[in-house]
Amino acid sequence: MVCERLTAMEQYLLMNHLSFPILSTTIFLPLIGAILILLMRNEKAVKVTAFITGIITFIVSLILYFNFNPNTYRFQFGEHMPWIPGYNINYTLGIDGITIFLILLTTILAPICVLCSWTAIKERVKEFMFCILMMETAMIGVFCSLDFILFYIFWEAMLIPMYLLIAVWGGPNKDYASIKFFIYTLFGSVFLLVAIIALYLTNGTFSILSAMYKNYSMTFQIWVFLAFAIAFAIKVPMFPFHTWLPAAHTEAPTAGSVFLASVLLKMGSYGFLRFCLPVTPKASILFAPYMIALSVIGIVYGGFVCLSQTDMKKLIAYSSVAHMGFVTLGIFSFTLFGVEGAMLQMLNHGVTTGALFLCVGIVYERTHSREIYDNAGLGKITPIYVGFFGLFSISSLAFPGTNNFIGELYVLIGTFSQNKVAGFFAVIGAVLAAAYMLRLLKQIAWGREDERKIRDMNVREIIYLLPLVLFVLWVGIFPRPFVHTIEKTLIHLSTQMQGFFH
Amino acid sequence: MLLLPELYMLLVSVTFLFVSLGKRRQGIFLCAKLLSLLGLIITLTSITGKGWLFHGAYKIDLFSQVFKVLLSFGFCLVVFMLDTKDEIEEGYLPEYFMFLSFSTLGLMMLVSSVELISIVISLEVSSYSLYVIIPLRKGQTKIQLEASMKYLFFGAISTGIMLYGMSYLYGMCHSTFLSEILFIFPKFIDQPIGILALILTLTGFFFKLSLFPFHFWAPDIYEGASNATTTFIATIPKIAGAALLIRITMLAFAGSSQFVSILIILSALSMTFGNLVALVQKDIKRLLAYSGIAHAGYLMMGILALSRDGSASAIYYITIYLFMNLACFYVVILLSKKGENIVLNDLVGLSKRAPLLAFTLAVSAFSLAGIPPTGGFTGKLFLFTSAFREGYLTIVIIGAVNTVISIFYYLNLVRMSYSKESPLIEPIKLSFHEKALCYIFIFLILYMGIMPFGLLGIFTAAI
Known about the structure:
The complex is a heterodimer. By secondary structure, chain A is mainly alpha-helical. Chain A has 19 helices and three strands. Chain B has 19 helices and two strands. In chain B, helix 11 (257-278) packs parallel to helix 17 (393-418). The relative contact order of chain B is 0.09. The mean pLDDT of chain B is 88. The chains are: A mainly alpha, B mainly alpha.
């Protein structure tokens, strides 16, 4: 058993070649910042510290990106230490093409979230920033862990600060939303835990690396897949497990919504990519038609529900259901295009939807309403704001030249090559997206004609939206660097999966 | 010197006996704190002791010493938690401490006993002290008397059943020594009489742990006894109960599927029943009583694995349970000004009134629910793994589902203190002593969640 573990480690994990443990640094920097914040009394100092911590973490993750070797599918920057030897639980970290951009997304969003809460959060600022930074640690940890228990601990630890973000700083219905979020997610997670223990008893170790690409018996794979799938489908969320999402999104403060939409939802699709496909390939293939069906239902259903929303946040929340449907659709097409598209779409959705929530947050701070009608007709009053909002909305409906277009195109190519019917319905979903986003944009820009006094965006708000604009256009026009970085990992994944088709 | 911890505990209770004869009541809290702290140190120094006493009826090994350390640590924490709270009639304070330490003495003897008669005697030594201190409560009139009568009756009945089971054991094996029973008993383990004898014998400890269907006393006694007494009853005797369950189920290590099935059923019923009833509780102590019933069920998952790993994880779980439960009760004790019971609505706005208390409560509630990175999760992980390893998938799934059920009411504690706005915002001032204890609890719970290997190693060695 020991021998086997070593080979799995050697086969998949390249140890860290930098002079310091960079992944641990990225994970625990925000935690250190959070502890520092606890010791402070001055609100201003708290905000500044949180922001600086976020920026430093982002810079460290940039080092990660520049040292990332895109020519291997192996996990890089590996760290390995025994943790609970009696149960063969190790502290194993490593990242590959799937996670590198998710980590960057997390680290760039954290300082943005601090900035966007600068004036929006007036009560208990210290605790709020503490929660934000704790979230950041947990989220980066989830993406870096290569040990099931480590993964599970970060995965669950994320729930507590997120719950508090909604429950303490949320909207009027926060009580209901936060409880629903917590219980829904926990329900999925306990089955994940059971599946993890089952894998441990089969492999003798909690290492994710040694659990991948093994030939488990079919029954075992089916049960493990189902347990995984419930947890991840709730997190994504796939239809019909999506009901917690609109409630949580609408009630959460802006920073919470951004984290929720941009990173937490990605954990579900990340779980599918990292666990379901490599650990239970045969069961994934077996269940793929159902997963595709659910994704397509999600896309179309999300689109129709969006058409009838009057609350901006709710509309964007339901549009997340549709967009994440594209992600799962791409993953379960098992083609290289599909998986690459899913991966891109995860990033795109993270950036675009995050930005849209930020925009809603900006206008909410001024009008104290999320209703579309209350915020309609801003085109003349706040032109800069509508400019940004317009860019992100057309990005959200996958307008050519923006990031989502590339992602959806990849997913659709992958889907059409496997399943024409699913592709057809997905296209309908894309048309619906244009309908509901343009309707929203039209209302916001020209929906009302009266004189109101609303401040336009200030410099701070422009600064935190600019990086996201840059990303939207960059991926939309020149996606090559991104695709290049993730390509090797995904090629490896899809070749392995092709092997299981026969 | 093998008996040093026990002798010291005896000395403590005798000291308080003499204090109770005198008139002086000043400085008694300080005295209790110092004595209990010294007791913890003495127990720690004797952890390496090994040997047999009283012709093999009393065994001193790592197993018993580890439990003695836990017991005296728990005792010490309870005394520190009571601090100078005004819960017990002042006149009875020396007696109160006397009986508390005497009960701890009984439990210490219990974990070392390896002979049926000594087990019964030690159990009774500890129980009788508890029967006496339950009615000692200021302010209330009937409720604590009812509680004490109930505890007495249920205790007597369960002892009776246990003696009945022991008589069967003796009848089969012609010995009261566990070491000799262990030798002969495997012949009977698959026969109905063997299973019956074992289950009946275990009843006394099921009662201590408040495992279904021996849980009836718990909610009423928790509600009726003073907050400090409840804290003691809810934690310390359970440690010893778990110890004896492990010791006696070792008789069945040879393996018996029927015996295990019975334990599985008890465990499943206990956690499901406890969690479901806890959902509708308003009084926090009652809620914690039902949560205790559920946790007894979780604990059984380690015991029914009938393996070294299982037993070690059961010890780990009872240890973390001690800390998280004490932390919860500490919040209750600090919140109740005059020793009255605390209901859920009293928690409203706690995070504004006393952020540290709210945080302590949140950490312990999340730990009780089993959310990482707290100790409750790590403990549950070990329990689930050891039960799953022996192939008992059913109970693992039932346990997992129960975790979800339980989150409703644990989260409710957090929800009340964090997301409900309170009309009156009157800050609760915490003294240095109280803050320090809160921090200690938070540290212990997180430490056991993140760094389990040291303790787990000791517990595995102790089995």
